[in-house]
Records
---
Amino acid sequence: MCQRHGLDVHIVETPWGHGLPATEYEAILKADKNHTIKVVLATHNETATGVKSDIAAVRKALDAAGHPAMLFVDGVSSIGSMDFRMDEWGVDVAVTGSQKGFMLPAGLAIVGFSDRAMQATKTSTLPRTFFDVHDMQKGYDNDAFPYTPPVGLMNGLKLALEMIEDEGLENVFARHRRIATGVRHAVKAWGLELCAVSPDVYSDTVSAIKTPDGFNATDIVTRAADKYGMAFGVGLGEVAGKVFRIGHLGMLTDAMMLSGLGVAEMVMVDLGLDIKLGSGVAAAQEFYRHGV
Amino acid sequence: MCQRHGLDVHIVETPWGHGLPATEYEAILKADKNHTIKVVLATHNETATGVKSDIAAVRKALDAAGHPAMLFVDGVSSIGSMDFRMDEWGVDVAVTGSQKGFMLPAGLAIVGFSDRAMQATKTSTLPRTFFDVHDMQKGYDNDAFPYTPPVGLMNGLKLALEMIEDEGLENVFARHRRIATGVRHAVKAWGLELCAVSPDVYSDTVSAIKTPDGFNATDIVTRAADKYGMAFGVGLGEVAGKVFRIGHLGMLTDAMMLSGLGVAEMVMVDLGLDIKLGSGVAAAQEFYRHGV
Amino acid sequence: MCQRHGLDVHIVETPWGHGLPATEYEAILKADKNHTIKVVLATHNETATGVKSDIAAVRKALDAAGHPAMLFVDGVSSIGSMDFRMDEWGVDVAVTGSQKGFMLPAGLAIVGFSDRAMQATKTSTLPRTFFDVHDMQKGYDNDAFPYTPPVGLMNGLKLALEMIEDEGLENVFARHRRIATGVRHAVKAWGLELCAVSPDVYSDTVSAIKTPDGFNATDIVTRAADKYGMAFGVGLGEVAGKVFRIGHLGMLTDAMMLSGLGVAEMVMVDLGLDIKLGSGVAAAQEFYRHGV
Amino acid sequence: MCQRHGLDVHIVETPWGHGLPATEYEAILKADKNHTIKVVLATHNETATGVKSDIAAVRKALDAAGHPAMLFVDGVSSIGSMDFRMDEWGVDVAVTGSQKGFMLPAGLAIVGFSDRAMQATKTSTLPRTFFDVHDMQKGYDNDAFPYTPPVGLMNGLKLALEMIEDEGLENVFARHRRIATGVRHAVKAWGLELCAVSPDVYSDTVSAIKTPDGFNATDIVTRAADKYGMAFGVGLGEVAGKVFRIGHLGMLTDAMMLSGLGVAEMVMVDLGLDIKLGSGVAAAQEFYRHGV
């Protein structure tokens, strides 16, 4: 329990690479007899570690505890690319952005409210200096916006949604799963491991790959950008220097993924890691040839 | 010698995969004592076979024969990507397009005339129904065009030229050579051969790769497009069904090339060719790691 | 009768500002007992003079003469903006471009062939060095193109056609008629006259406006561009210096047209013509307020 | 004095149409002997009323009172279009957006901090949930961003700044002044008045125009959009229904402005106001012909 901006906050710690511990959530909620907890926060897909968490399990924890707290979910790097079920999982507020699964430049924060969450905004006394969803609602009721809207991104979102519908949402999810699985085959072929500890938490949109002890994983990211013009992600926080990340979401094909894997191999060999050129690519190719 | 549109035409045949035979040009020119030959045509880079020809040698043939014919060069798939020297090689007319080395959509035919060629257009009696360079010249003299110009493509060309100058023309050539050499290493690793018969005629912008007898190379192109969303080129004319082509020019990086090689491997294995997945990619990677 | 590229050509002269003389066409066709005339050419909308011709009348002339010649129509500045009926008028070949009624950059020549015209291409012995429609047909039969297509413009054309269908083709025609009529009201208010001699030949896509004797109309175009950043058209050929042209086709609204009229007024006053500022604008406004 | 988010706030009321009262600011600051006021807020250009305020006078008020409060300025609809002098006027924080003077889509908030303001952020205890400028500073120090940046808009901003530099910032200001002055001549010709009460507060980027008593100015905006496809602004707050607004900033020319004035005239006549068509256009034209 700590204080943030004058609010009491429980932070549920979990080792990097693990999904969120729903049983611990449940215990805390059960112990909160007076329902002082108003909101449970959960990240669906943790971008820093490539870890997917089980949001349905958080809902079950809430239900098992008979607790009325709302469920807020960070779906920034999952919504549109991985299966996310706002209604079925009883999510009250979900947030994502334009720049991940929707394949657009950064610029739109896309937020969903349940009826219950909308109701709560009417009685909440939290200060709203920057954003009040009621302004949006009033605008929408009049086919308008409460401020100058980013029209270009909104047209882009319309097109992105048409692309997703043309491909079929299930097919979009399956494509991300296939591409990610190919990456995981490559990682195994390299003799490396993911930061994510077990298959049930493997993310289909980003893989954080652990490098050997004593090796600075950030060097991979720097060299990939400098020598091969490719953008990987650095490790953040506790895993800084220990992992590098390959993003694999959005408008991506198996063919494009091979390019990323090929560059990762060149860079790792350049930096002296004991990796066989083409080994990860071949593992991914074998999977992509058969993968659905 | 044959007739085309009422003109006598010598066609110099050369086996597919070979460069143009400058000595044969020279012999024909020397035999033409009356200088009835007005123009010598040559293709700098043959897109169908991935063969580069020695334009300087054609100039030497003209000079050795003391023949006044003009030299017209098709540089469509070389200019801007491979070393081409209009003045040094005494080229009188050179033609290229916007959609190759200049990295733009198709739409602009870019033509260069030597002073001598411009002079010849003033006395030539050939009919000009579609295009007369004098219309262009008159327009340019007044900062104008003789017809509605494709402004978008012309702005694009300005930007493309700035990109090329920023990278440095020599660096652009070197990049194409490096990428193409990587492809050739991959082809060797696959146990296949280029249509181009020897290193001196290897093209740096397109590789036509021969497939084993009895195999329909066009199937590679079809499957790459259908299953992996990648565009290769089919064999044309005499080599239809016998080669497939990988284009590697324009705004291309080593990393992107690995993607094409990886797809080629998957497709060839899919179609039953005896290729080891990752083998060509690894050969290219090894080269790209060290290549300048 | 004259010779062009080895062909006998009748040129039917008509004073600038008049439409094509269908009766003269008919007389020539009737006199051609041996049917040596193979093709009748007609321009639907003459861009230099802002004159619309009656293509249906040419068809009637052909029919009245019982002459089998084909009818080729230049519809560059009419098709998509003014009523054009290829089948009803028995047009055999019609040509337009992407940069007029289709609201795109220059770059596509859009050509329609009747069945009869396609049939004729099979027996015609005219040389085809630049374009052979059979290459296109063969390509289309295989969902392909005989050469690298300008994909961007083709996607643009698809969008342009959707825009036209959304507005409704009849509405597009009506909009052009309304905007053009407003321009004609402005011209009358200025005390000037169109090059086009009578309402039946007034073009709905471009107006060529005569300036007083002794005045150089080209100065209007120069000053409009230099001082006000607006592009008018100069007079061409026989009317060079005698007219300036206002184009009013494509993605244009009444509101945008007022801008052009307002600039024309400022320029004419700047250059000393006896024009009242706002007079033409007011005449157009009055019409646009009520015009359908 | 009132409370906002737990802070004491002086709100300085001024009648709509007037600029900010610097003398009143000075009095309040002088009375604040204990320097409890930390920040003075001022809007440079009030978009709702088309009123420009004298920011230099606020600085003088602060100096005259010997008061250490910082000066924060809303320059959303002025910066880049009207003369704004952050250093000379001693502005500590200035804010604008991408969608006004910078001619871009909405999406970038552009904020400037003085050294003093940056210093204050280090000791301030105000909660920062959404934005902390130190995150930006740390990022910039490493040529990086603390979050995914909107790259497209940033490239657009670079281009916008190049356009402004090419034209010359003083010329950009002069152009806005000229265009706005033309609009004011038109308003006078219509027999109407601006919401802004005197020339010293006339905005060069937006004009709010008062309509006669009993007339609903919002009808003008609705009809302009519905019938003529043009976007004017409605009156807001106290002047809702009493004014309509014409924006005239960004990539705008005299010629384009005539279009807006022409539509305003048509709409006002359509709605029964006693306006002479062309009268305002003519007044603006006369000015634009001579205006620098």
Note: Chain B has two domains: 22-164, 169-290.
---
Amino acid sequence: MKRLLSLLLAAAIPTLPALAQKFEGLVPTPPMGFNTWNTFATNISEVLIMETADTMVKNGMRDAGYNYIVLDDCWALRTRDANGSLVPDPAKFPSGMKALGDYLHARGFKFGIYGCAGSKTCGGYPGSQGHEYQDARLFASWGIDYLKYDWCFTETRNAKEAYTTMRDALFAAGRPVVFSICEWGNSKPWEWAKDVGHLWRTTGDITDSYNAVQRWERGWKLILDLQYSQVQPADGPGNGIGQYAGPGHWNDPDMLEVGNEGLTFAESRAHFSMWCMLAAPLMAGNDVRHMSPEILAVMTNKEVVAIDQDPLGKQGWRFRAEPSREIWVRELANGEWAVALLNTGDTAAELSIDFPHMGFLGNCAIRDLWDKKAAGTTEKAFTKRLESHDVALLRLKPIK
Amino acid sequence: MKRLLSLLLAAAIPTLPALAQKFEGLVPTPPMGFNTWNTFATNISEVLIMETADTMVKNGMRDAGYNYIVLDDCWALRTRDANGSLVPDPAKFPSGMKALGDYLHARGFKFGIYGCAGSKTCGGYPGSQGHEYQDARLFASWGIDYLKYDWCFTETRNAKEAYTTMRDALFAAGRPVVFSICEWGNSKPWEWAKDVGHLWRTTGDITDSYNAVQRWERGWKLILDLQYSQVQPADGPGNGIGQYAGPGHWNDPDMLEVGNEGLTFAESRAHFSMWCMLAAPLMAGNDVRHMSPEILAVMTNKEVVAIDQDPLGKQGWRFRAEPSREIWVRELANGEWAVALLNTGDTAAELSIDFPHMGFLGNCAIRDLWDKKAAGTTEKAFTKRLESHDVALLRLKPIK
């Protein structure tokens, strides 16, 4: 009997159905929203979230597409309860997470939260390792729509296993959740995460600078560079990690630092533009309650956001990189293009794009999205004076 | 603030206390008991367990040390309940696991159960991946004392991570549990499992034959050989995987096939003897309700069991391997030795141990543990006629 059983079991193994999967259809374009970490870190509360949501309704951010409001780390107590459940810090969230979710849902937002694949979160709060299904059920009971899932204290854990386990747990809990893989690119998630999560971090953390390195954090320009050095340099379409992104599964170069104190206005605007070129998730990381009108105008520029949200979902690539100039190109739906011209130099300069030598773009009319005006055609070079670290963002439309 | 926090967190990481650990002091000598798998596989029930326990009280097995009664795979329903809890099959266990544990505890037994580190058990029942803490709490509520934890359907999971997660979950649940790592030796658990579990399988499954290979199952002599080929051949003390075993942490060459139909009496007796030489867990895998008096006498031979349970806890090693003869040596407490002489040939033969050429043993009196009589001293060779695959098991005591 024993041997017979063994044979039967062996025969059954390959035919067991795949019971769990990723929720499909949630992010045909990159998710947009707000996340607490970059500005608030541990200093979070339900009041902050409610005020943020109220502000985003009033200032037009919600209607511009920023509809995921995500609580990052430090929302929980440092220990689970006797049943092993995560407990929201009652000092920060006295009304509880279900009430907070209801508040957000009533205002047209989705509710996101943070967890970690290790024994602890990066901030030392309880991780979900070994608690995945229980935590996923709890999140579902709170109305969670988005989970950012971090990678601290994972020791020997295998990343694909860890994220697949939480994917399966979320699926079993039954409530559709956008699953944000925050594994910092260590195990090349672009190679395996398409069917596991909806977005995956490609690098370590961003910080509010242009190119500084602060321990494991990097300025946004260095993160932009890392989109190439992560894999073999590949300045062209179809190569590099850009090939792994598309509707429903996105490379995530980390949340926005737009409007934060370490960036000039030009650097904030260029950072935003380049994230749109990358088809990156646009998760505001500033204090939206106290943002300048200029920064609000950047983040809600409909024509710029439309580059990020282009339905074709193809990530842009770096066409040219020189000491003081980069040119990026992104293919859009309906044969249109986005082109970015970035002043990477330390001073203002007159920079050009030699469109006649970029024949693959075809004959197009050019619209300058920050100046909000037509800017000629691709029959001749485009030239613009740009401040240091500023950008020109152009949309090209074929001339029939 | 953000950067300050990052620095604080980074500083805190190395100093976080180790909150979880293995339960210590449970198995100063290798665990002994009974496990359902080898004979009963899926055909298990509370009646079987109760009858087995009653038999083991009556026939002396319990008092000989066989005190762990372990339910192997196939005890659960194929799906978890709405809360994610494992559910014992009510057709097999109508009284529930708590009642069964109470029955065993009242009779002086410990209660063991089976789980799996993957999404499913080897038999296709629910695995504990992502449910570790919840399952550990449930086991504790049932009075579980021993967990055999398997390795099917683990895909990309890292073994050390998987078993450490369940170790931590068991520790958090608070009830001391012997943790039996059943990972088949794939990731060399002897190198990492000492602080994770109490015993770890070194090979794939055993089957009731001497040396046949049946898919992933192997005869006990092949498993004995694998104790050496698993790592660099090392026929000597202090080398090979034997060096990793000791009080509280044991190599596990798998459960006993003693008394099962595929083995001759000689093969059963030799198998038992060699497992004692290996300081192996002695988990009966036969139907103890219907065992022959001869097999019962083998399994309850106090002098032989004492070799296995020797308090020094040093595993034996293969001193000599020849086409038709193997000699194994095990150092015991108080300067004594166990020596096994195995007839690996296909026919009965007169075999010898040339004690005068094994000076490291010193001058000892020899006792033949199966014949239960004195057998001279190590001043001259020991010779005995042995049936094919039979064994002589000797205990050597220094002559003062």
Note: Chain B has two domains: 32-313, 318-398.
---
Amino acid sequence: MRLFGVLAAMTAFTFSLPALAETTPPVALAIHGGAGTIDPEKMSDEKRQAIAAKLDEALTSGYRLLQNGGSALDAVEAAVRVLEDSPLFNAGVGAVYTWEEGHELDASIMDGATLEAGAVAGVRTVRNPISLARKVMTDSPHVMLAGEGAEAFARSQGVEMVPNSHFDTESRLKSLKEAKEKILAREGVSHQAAVESLESEFKMGTVGAVALDSTGTLAAATSTGGMTAKRWGRVGDSPVIGAGTYADDAVCAISATGHGEYFIRYNVAADICARAKYQGILLAEAADEVILKRLKQAGGTGGVITLDPEGRVAMPFNTEGMYRASIDAQGNKQIAIWQSVIEP
Amino acid sequence: MRLFGVLAAMTAFTFSLPALAETTPPVALAIHGGAGTIDPEKMSDEKRQAIAAKLDEALTSGYRLLQNGGSALDAVEAAVRVLEDSPLFNAGVGAVYTWEEGHELDASIMDGATLEAGAVAGVRTVRNPISLARKVMTDSPHVMLAGEGAEAFARSQGVEMVPNSHFDTESRLKSLKEAKEKILAREGVSHQAAVESLESEFKMGTVGAVALDSTGTLAAATSTGGMTAKRWGRVGDSPVIGAGTYADDAVCAISATGHGEYFIRYNVAADICARAKYQGILLAEAADEVILKRLKQAGGTGGVITLDPEGRVAMPFNTEGMYRASIDAQGNKQIAIWQSVIEP
């Protein structure tokens, strides 16, 4: 584990931005690019730097909006769009492949001020699913749309459409082939058992953001390509309000990443909020309880990014790593991949 | 309001079954057939009696299993299947129509012992969506399947398939035409605003069941045709674990019915469980807080059926009526439609 600390030091850093005037309402932003088995020894310096740079770009794009008085919703949408448009993460371009070698994208967004929310599941030709989720929230009478219907809604809203191949990447196709080979090699066991025996790296990968704006509003957003080799129109936790995404100005903004089935069953995002709200504990403490204890004991791998109404950031995960970055209400900035965050 | 009490007396009754031996572990079951604007003056005696008889039949089919040592999962599935196969309720046969004059069915089921769950959204040709949801739980590596993919999974499992017209009923078609007429008549307002102005009767209708078996396991199940005139692959709360359905042996089994968008945003089923768990209050009290206060204040109409680990039943709703029936751990049986439950 010492190795991780040393390697982490190479990409994880924190520093303080110039002290803010006391009269400026605090703003804060945290983002993630997925949790999982991220082996530091297998990651090239180039890839590590590319990931850190893209996280920084996404963080900056959202944070600038917040600094200029923009809304938490605008900030999380902007940050997630940057990550969706990058092939480095499992969302938008770079989304994993389904069993049939296509891409089915899920996303959701929630406004902590109104508890309004929007979500889409299984969309194939929408360039930025997070923006479609926001349209569902603001311009449809519904919260969640799926499949062909969601695409028809997207067209009616003038959202940017792309061919499904827009999301293709060589590395994800290779992962699909590996996953299918492993599943099909397990003769004599059910598809279910074969999938369950797959390494967790095939089951994860998501991007997300949580923000606090200068009006005190919290928002959360999550987007994903789901699980490698998923079949049968599988919907993960990312578009499930309460599982992958939740926001409530009274207590929390949360975006999750991990083995989605567990996050749905354990109602992870909302359960963390509920613990903070009803037990009167800090959101960070509630997040640790759920991610590092309850979910871990159940075998559920992944993590969350959380932001409380005071702009405090916590980003616990029970996997080897989680791509993440944040600037809290005090202006402390952090970009990290592995467990240890080393002070500069 | 006195009128309701009088009319309620005609269909709502409670009585005690023969006292159970102290050594028999308690079992309990509650079911619902939807909440909404149910005008007692507009309901014929025949319809009232037919509804009461079908609720009784569903209740009995599940309760018999429990009495014979059957599992809570078997009991909720059996009860919901009876309601799905009846044209009286908005699930299975009798499901409302989509904008395009078809049916898209949603369902979910959850095992409180393991927190395992299964859900399907937008299925069109599966006779009993609740049984497919159970197959998703037991025989797929996933929790939630949607659309065409869910149908393909159904075929691979040998689940009974029917043409979409199997779910047709004259009265629901009439409701669709009314709803579309009202929406299209509202020129100059958005589809969203027009739908939001629709009477709540068009937005509700669900069936569900919660059970406690002799091993102390709780289970919950919910099934629906969704909202009349729904479009764009709309998914309501029924297949969303945490919103329409939740079960956890430690504290609760819950099935919800109402304006689904609110139930998703307020994470209703899981929030009731969380309040009971973290605030240490009775489940019934938590359900009242959410349904009669928080949700009602937000404008969210509907109700829930709840069962706690001691087999206590609570079934609060903030609408005029909710079709419901239950037998609690003491053997007290109840079948009711409106607010008042009159002692015999």
Note: The radius of gyration of chain B is 19 Å.
